[in-house]
Amino acid sequence: MPPRTDFYLLKQADEHTQLLTACRIIEKAYLQSHKIYIYCEDEKQAILIDKLLWDFKDVSFIPHNTSDAPVVIGHPASPLPDFSDILVN
């Protein structure tokens, strides 16, 4: 299957809204058994999305970390994962 790119246009463009939207997309992809790589602009943003993945929904659990999980969080200074089939940037 050829690669596919999806873009999401948000009415609000603040970082918190962007990260919440990313969490919803990540949750949907995780529940469909995808491996996801979240590429953040820097370590600070990676820490924010890590916290938000724990807190954005009190009835959801998305296993994630910085190396070996269904959802991997990275940034320019971190190593790339072995494989992901979805990239969230």
Description:
The chain is α/β, with parallel strands linked by helices and 89 residues long. The protein has 2 helices and 4 strands. The protein has helices at residues 15-31, 43-55, and strands spanning 36-39, 64-65, 71-74, 86-88. A 4-stranded parallel β-sheet has the order 2-3-1-4, with helices on one face. It is globular, with a radius of gyration of 12 Å. The mean pLDDT is 89.
In short:
The protein has 89 residues and is α/β, with parallel strands linked by helices.
Which short descriptors sum up this protein?
4-stranded parallel β-sheet; 34% helix; alpha/beta; 89 residues
Helix count, DSSP H or I runs of 4 or more residues:
2
Give the termini distance in whole angstroms: 21 Å
Judged by helices, strands and strand pairing, the structural class is alpha/beta
Number of strands: 4
Q: What composes the largest sheet? A: 4 strands, parallel
Shape assignment: globular
Order of helices and strands: HEHEEE
- Beta content comes to 5-15%
Topology (SSEs and partners):
Blueprint: H1 15-31, E1 36-39, H2 43-55, E2 64-65, E3 71-74, E4 86-88
Parallel strand pairs: 1-3, 1-4, 2-3
